[in-house]
Amino acid sequence: MKLTDIRDNQGATKKRMRIGRGIGSGKGKTGGRGVKGQTSRSGVRIKGFEGGQMPLYRRLPKRGFWNPFSRDLNEVNVGRIQAAIDAGKLDASAPVTVEALVAAGVCARARDGVKILGQGELTAKLVFEVAGASKSAISAIEKAGGSVKILSQPVAEA
To answer: What are the UniProt keywords, alphabetically (predicted)?
Structure first.
């Protein structure tokens, strides 16, 4: 076999139809655009125009609100962190930060920070430096002898 012998499979590619090349071609005269009207002409068509009927994007109600100051946080339970320590993936002597959790494989990526939730058991004495923590998580951490430092989020300039 040579490079010159390589071809697509039979029927894998189809030659494009050249429109507007005489009536014998089957796509001549109007070129598949029908007769007269806005859509037969070159240039801009009205997108979303429904012939004077109220368009769909105006018939449907607008819902919801996007908060520009919202934060996309990773949520991690204390039980999951204890499991990572037991498996030897997380160092108990170093402070628990977003970067440490990503390196341990507890979080897939950093996002805007991490929030610790209180489900599960925590036995290791840990120092947390995170974006947020629930009341139950803080009590579980302090019960195990650790501490929580909530990092302040930098204020976005308007």
So the answer is: Ribonucleoprotein, Ribosomal protein, RNA-binding, rRNA-binding
